Amino acid sequence: MPELVLESNGRTWTLDPSRSYTLGRDPQGDVVLDDARVSWRHATISFNGRSWAVEDHGSTNGTFVQGQRIHHLEFGSDTVLNLGNATDGPRVTVSGVA
User: Fold this and answer.
1) Among 8, 18, 50, 65, which one is most buried in terms of CB atoms within 10 A?
2) What are the residues facing 69 on neighbouring strands?
């Protein structure tokens, strides 16, 4: 199973496919994004056995890929997520997907 690398604002996280990861403002979360437009528990990234996927948890301001609001999306290499705003919300760059 492939590892996933997330990068945001100069920070990098390597995700193991054996578990899911929470993204949001919660300091106890796995990927913490300190921005008022990001919900406390904004979204989850996980490996579903065949691909990585992101699921928005009903966040107030949304999760966006290529300017489109998404609720659940399986994704491949070089995907960019914007949290909280389609154009200038915190940007999470995804790489390392086999």
Assistant:
1) 8
2) 64
* Spatial separation of the C-alpha atoms in residues 76 and 97, rounded to whole Å: 6
Sign of CA dihedral 23, 93, 70, 55: negative
pTM for the predicted model, two decimal places: 0.91
DSSP label of 12: E
Question: Does residue 74 contact residue 81 with C-beta atoms inside 8 Å?
Answer: no
> Is 55 strand, coil or helix?
strand
Largest CA distance in the chain: 34
pLDDT tens-digit profile of 30-82?
999 999 999 999 999 999 999 999 999 999 999 999 999 999 999 987 899 99
Residue 92 tokens, joined:
């999470």
One-letter amino acid identity for 54?
A: V
